[in-house]
Amino acid sequence: MMNSDSNIVFETRGLSKVYDMGEVQVHALRGVDLDLYESELVVLLGASGSGKSTLVNILGGLDTASEGSVLYRGKDLTRAADRELTEYRRHYVGFVFQFYNLIPSLTAAENVAIVTEIAQDPMTPLEALELVGLGDRANHFPSQLSGGQQQRVAIARAIAKRPSVLLCDEPTGALDSETGIIVLEALQRVNQELGTTTVIITHNVVQGEMAERIIDLKDGRITNIQQNEHKKAPHELKW
Amino acid sequence: MKAIDIKMLRDLLNMRGQVMAIAFVIIAGVSVYVTMTSVGNTLQETLDTYYTEFAFADGFASVRRAPESLAERLRDVPGVNQVETRVSASVNLEIPGFNDPAMGQIVSVPEGNQPVLNRLFIREGRLVEPGRENEVILNEAFSEAHDLGPGDELTAIISGRRRTLTVVAIALSPEFLYQVQPGMLFPDPERFGIMWMGERALAAAYDMEGAFNDVSFTLAPNAVAEDVIDRMDLLLRPYGGEGAYPQADQPSHSLITDELDQLQAMAVMLPLIILAVAAFLLNIVVSRLISLQREQIAILKAFGYSNLAVGMHYIKMVLVIALASAAVGTVLGVWMGGAMSEMYLEYFKFPYLEYTLGWTVIVTAVVLTAGASLAGAVVAVRRALRLPPAEAMRPAPPPSFRPTILERLGLQRLFDQPTRIILRNLERQWVKAALTVVGISSSCAILIMGLFWGDVFDHIIRVQYGIAQREDITVTFVEPTSVSAIYELNSLPGVYYAEPFRSVPVRLQNEYRSHDTAIEGIPPEPYLRRTLDADLQPIPIPPEGLVLSQNLAEILNVRPGDEVRVEVMEGRRYERDVPVVGLTEQYLGLGAYMNLEAANRLSGVGDAISGAFLMIDEQYEDELTQALQNRPRIASIVSQDRAIAGFMDTAAESLLAMTFILSLFAGVIALGVVYNSVRISLSERDRELASMRVLGFTRGEISYILLGEMAILVLLAIPLGFGIGTIMSRLSIEALQTDMYQLPFILGSGTFALAATIVLISALISALLIRRRLNKLDLIGVLKTRE
Questions:
Q1: A222 touching chain B per CB within 8 A
Q2: Testing the interface with A: which of B303, B310, B312, B314 to mutate, by most A Cβ within 10 A?
Q3: Which site from A191, B218, B381, B670 is most exposed, i.e. has the minimal number of CB atoms within 10 Å?
Q4: B519 and B599 in contact (C-beta within 8 Å)?
Q5: Residue numbers in B near A88 (CB within 8 A)
Q6: Phi and psi for B101 in degrees, rounded to 5?
């Protein structure tokens, strides 16, 4: 295997998460041990409720674990203060969500700018948009863009600060397969050109074929990790 | 501009309806504050400079006739700085083309020179010259009322002789900002004017050569006014001194001070209430905005915006609303303040009035507004920041509902589904509902606070001029006159009835408290001038003892049964202890009443009367006035209508103008609160309402759910507003009590009805605006998008 301990990005041990939903307790994660490596593209597969979003949220510093530890390049995120998590997200993490979550009152370029303005060494909003093939839509508002275009703006927004990890929660979940593939192509291109460690959550098994590793989650536990020897390009995928 | 600031501006633009509703409330508060405070400061500063520049005296006294040599002794009184003696006389005037009785007070000035104290501001013309006997300087208010200027002539009856006087100048004096005829409560520039005449000419006419009957003085630094006045009184008493008084009791000065106090009371209370409402509105609007933007907040935080940065984003939004409104409010306030100052300039007759807007006023307005707005928004912003981003990104869980108390009591059969929705919603969001009720009720309360003055003034006029003082005309004689004069008055054309009175100038004392006034001696069973008990029933005057008006009894701290020391300020100047035998309800002025004969015994002058109250046939009023004017022994003729008009012009007019402004602002507040509350309910529940429409509910039915809730809140708010308004009205009437007005607390049902109507109309307008939005509800769009 080409990966060694020196380029481990994330290292989780015994990671658990319990939500108090009023009168019921939901166990979203039940002891997850996982290592993620520099520059790899990983697909997290699982049915809804399997805990994949919770895992990614904890990796991204959006949420904190109830038990266990997460190390980001050797730094313990579970013990980080809110301010440190904010710094962490600001400089190292890019997010892409299923519902794009663009700010409706800002144009495509402004949606990217809102991130580049607080980042350390960002590309320009236009560069980021060109990377996802939307350079000509910079001055459009979200309501003037199709779903796929909106998702690509969201990707541009996520990668504009040159994050070291890119976390994508069902990035194609709200899209048809044709636009979904365009979005995946954008993600792959970012992964290849910038070397960003990329985690893609999906419940679509086919999308696993573009990953280097495929991780299956069920009921808050990792059930299988599979090394993908025959990586496909997104346009070769069919679903 | 930063992207996050662009977002803020676009968000504001999208919420413009609500932003405007809040802005109007803030503008109202700030403009009232700026107007009142700046006008108050302007008046105070103008007054101070005017008094200093024109050497307004610190104390005054009148005597019957004192030799000029006394002036030196007055100057030697410890604590006295400057002394100036004068001659002052009251005269009847005849003005071409004006048939009503007019009176003048002539004050002497050195020929060719300004007086040392109470200097004149010459608007036009020149000072009186030595050796010209018939030159006068007219006070501006009087000259304007009759369109008289330098070169014009008027006739005065001086010492029983008609003399033609030539106007040489129009002037103003710090002593007569308000020119009130002695014995009257309010100014009437058509019928009473001040004029100045050369010292020699006036002294010659009144046999005052080498003598004076009026003195004004200034105090040395650190002098105690009371001590100086006591010593002066000792010196002046042998010459018929009627008691010296300090600047604070000078009629013009004390009226203007009352006016300033009223302004200051209003300048604080009202803006605070309005700004509190604005804070509440900002709170509910920002809360809702934040809950609508919980995902946007989550995104910002996911990308590394700190809590502080996100918090500042919303705080900035609030500050933009607050500061922009404060700016508009200040501009509006400056404009209204300028206009109001102009009004006061007309009213008080200052030589100049420089409208000044202190930086402190603006800074205070801005700090107050920003403070109130932030107080309203901070809670909402903090709640938003507590959410961890991962949680904020999920749609909010459905709010938990439960059956209401009414339903748990088993009364659910009484309510249909929509009504249950209303009730459960109210119970779940009871804090917001309660605040909404308080907001609407404050507008109702402000309305009552403004409108109730109408009730108060109606009542005062009805009681004071309808029950207590029923005369049409009051005639006073130059000096106490034989009782037989009443028969002569009775025989004049148009006189139905003449009732005599005897006015005895006195100083009333109880321990260290004292008050200078005149005891009015009236018949035992008066028909025209009556004293009233607390139930407004006429009470007879006992054969002995004093009946005091409530507020005079309070000033002297006496009750019926106590005795007061009465120092008679005329004739042989007896001092006696007289028992207080009753109290009378009197709203305007301070009164002391006594049996006519007892009053005469007190003064020691014998059977005499000072004047009479007349009931007349109005048809003969002009003729009667003419007849009275031609009698040299008649000093003044005052008609009742004039007194009422004077009262309305002076006190009532400015307060009624205030009522209008208050009503306007209260309407704005009601509109702001109701519109914002319903608008927010609509945005919170558009999905729910659209679903109901899809399920087959009509527009009317879903409007019922949304607007029915508001109707309940409005109906709860009105009685609460009545309560708060009653308390605030009572407080404001207490704040505005002065020696001159003893304002009764009257709140008519008409006021309540009008306040409720204005609130209901504002609510209805808001409801119609919302109803238009409900009709445009996008059924499919609302259901398709994710919360």
A1: no
A2: B303
A3: B218
A4: yes
A5: 304
A6: -65, 135
Q: Please state, rounded to an integer, the average pLDDT across all residues of chain B.
A: 85
Among the listed residues B311, B549, B283, B332, the one whose alpha carbon sits nearest the alpha carbon of residue B434: B283
Radius of gyration of chain B (CA): 34
Q: Which phi and psi angles does B520 have, rounded to 5°?
A: -100, 115
How many percent of chain B have pLDDT more than 70?
94
CB contact under 8 A, B296 and A101: yes
Residues 6 or more apart whose CB falls under 8 angstroms from that of B131 comprise B111
- Residue A196: its H or E element: none
Structure tokens belonging to residue A117: 């303005």
Among chain B residues, CA nearest to A106: B7
- Residue B171: half-sphere exposure toward Cβ, Cα within 13 Å: 27
Q: Please give, rounded to a whole number of angstroms, the shortest distance from the CA of B10 to a CA of chain A.
A: 6
pLDDT tens digits along B305-363: 888 888 899 899 989 999 999 999 999 999 988 888 887 777 777 888 878 888 888 89
Check whether A2 has a pLDDT greater than 50. Answer: no
B303 to A83: CB separation less than 8 angstroms, yes or no: no
pLDDT tens digits, residue range B686-738?
A: 777 877 777 777 788 888 888 888 899 999 999 999 999 999 888 888 877 76
Q: What are phi and psi of B557, to 5 degrees?
A: 55, 50
- Chosen from B5, B393, B778 to mutate, greatest number of chain A CBs within 10 A: B393
Interface mutation target, options A88, A103, A139, chain B, most CBs of B under 10 Å: A103
How distant is the Cα of B753 from the closest Cα of chain A, in angstroms?
Answer: 46
**B490-503 residue pLDDT tens:** 988 889 999 999 98
Can you list the positions of beta strands (E) in B229-279? 245-246
Record the tokens describing residue B504, joined without a space. Answer: 């005895």
CB contact under 8 A, A111 and B391: no
List Cβ neighbours of A163 (8 Å cut-off, separation of 6 or more): A91, A92, A93, A94, A196
Secondary structure (3-state) at B524: coil
Distance CA B590, CA B720 (A): 37
Tell me what pLDDT residue A1 has: 40
Task: Report the number of secondary-structure helices (H) and strands (E) in chain A.
Answer: 6, 10
Q: What is the pLDDT of residues B209-256, one digit of tens each?
A: 999 999 999 999 988 888 999 999 899 988 888 788 999 888 889 888
> Mind listing the pLDDT tens digit for each residue in A75-109?
999 888 888 888 898 889 998 888 777 888 888 99
Quickly state the pLDDT bin for B548 (edges 50, 70, 90): very high
User: Which neighbouring-strand residues pair with B450?
Assistant: none
Q: If you average pLDDT over residues B665-684, what whole number do you get?
A: 83
| pLDDT at position A34 | 93
**The total number of residues written for chain A in this structure:** 239
